[in-house]
Amino acid sequence: MRGENLYGRGACDDKGQMFVHIKALESYLQTQGSLPVNVKCLFEGEEEIGSPNIRSFVNRYRHALAADVALVSDTRMLGPDRPAITHALRGGLSFDLEVRGPQTDLHSGNFGGVVHNPLQALCEMIAKLHDNDRRIAVPGFYDRVRRWPEEERNFMARNGPADEQILADAKTAMSWGEDGFSLYERTTIRPSLSVSGAGGGYQGPGVKAIIPSRAFAKLNFRLVPDQRPDEIEQLVLQHFARIAPPTIDYTIRSFLKAPPALIDRRHPAVRAASIACQRSFGVAPVFLRSSGTIPIVSTFQELLAISTVLLGFALPDDRIHAPNEKFHLPTFRKGIATCIRFLAELGARRVLRRQRALAM
């Protein structure tokens, strides 16, 4: 702990946010003796690697997990006093790409200019994943990308962060990406491709005159409605078959495959969360789209036919996935109060529905 922050790996993403719910349930039980609604807790430890087992788990225990709504805290606010409810998530699709050349590393003096360097070939292939307009160059990739009406884009402009704020959060002065869209739109309603890792050859100090025998890259696509991960996977595989030089061998393997998710802002549980936020923070929450992926949300939608309320308590400067990740403790306490009020609001709505049913 330093000042008002708690530092540690995963402090905000997502241990701290998960602990908000534990303390809310504990507080309710210690003061009231029981909860106003039935609650089932599901703690998943694989979200950061794409939730490879959660789908089969939910499908196997779908009857035990049946519910009216899910509540997940793994998203962000706009600031300490600017709560937010997320109503859209991008999907995810990740690949490992390996390029192979000679059987062993070779002396670059003896074989430079004779053997196609796998690391160079990898760079050439990666360079062909975007076109000159900074769009993803995979044929057919944009065929299903939804076109949003001006009304929705205007809503986003009113409620989402400005370009300057996004650049400030990223601690960079220059933007990059697809023309015709704000930075907020680029990270939410437009798909993206990131090279999240690459390597090959000598990595130590000084010089080592070699041609490496292999090189690798990790690729991460973010998908938007109505893109389908399985379909995009096939388009990407076909694209690599076209662009791979005949002078090398390569393998490509997919990992995370999660569909995008949309949540109805008019859902009664979303309304309950909005009221809870306003009572705890003193201001109504904004509705945001997220650039990230949470596989469990689309899994709940498909297998359990339930919506998820995405009520997050991360701040833009919490440095998730980076050194010195932190969680803001005043926000932690307000988050507990918000979850308590959310449960109370759901309970009140359940009682009201029963009263209406009896009156009929």
List the helices and strands and how they pair.
Elements: E1 5-7, H1 11-32, H2 54-60, E2 69-72, E3 84-89, E4 91-100, E5 106-107, H3 108-111, H4 118-127, H5 150-159, H6 163-170, H7 183-186, E6 192-200, E7 210-211, E8 214-223, H8 229-243, E9 249-258, E10 261-262, H9 268-281, E11 286-289, H10 295-304, E12 307-311, E13 326-328, H11 329-359
Parallel strand pairs: 2-12, 3-11
Antiparallel strand pairs: 1-13, 3-10, 3-12, 4-8, 4-9, 5-7, 6-8
Write a brief structural summary.
With 360 residues, the chain is α+β, with helices and mostly antiparallel strands.
Report on the architecture of this protein.
The chain is an alpha+beta fold and about 350 residues long. It folds into two domains: about 5-90 and about 260-360, 3-Layer(aba) Sandwich (Aminopeptidase); about 90-145 and about 190-260, Alpha-Beta Plaits, CATH 3.30.70.360. The chain has helices spanning about 10-30, 55-60, 110, 120-125, 150-160, 165-170, 185, 230-245, 270-280, 295-305, 330-360; strands spanning about 5, 70, 85-90, 90-100, 105, 190-200, 210, 215-225, 250-260, 260, 285-290, 305-310, 325-330. Strands 2, 3, 10, 11 and 12 form a five-stranded mixed beta sheet that branches.
Give the radius of gyration.
24 Å
Q: In this structure, how is the largest beta sheet organized?
A: 5 strands, mixed
**What is the annotated CATH architecture of the largest domain?**
3-Layer(aba) Sandwich
CATH superfamily of the largest domain: Zn peptidases
Apparent shape: elongated
Quantity of strands, as a count: 13
The CATH topology name of the largest domain reads Aminopeptidase
The amount of helix comes to: 25-40%
What's the domain count?
2
Instruction: Give the low-pLDDT segments.
Output: none
Q: What structural category arises from helix and sheet content?
A: alpha+beta
| Overall CATH class of the largest domain | Alpha Beta
**Tally of individual helices:** 11
Global mean pLDDT: 94
- How large a portion of the residues is in β-strands, by DSSP E? 15-25%
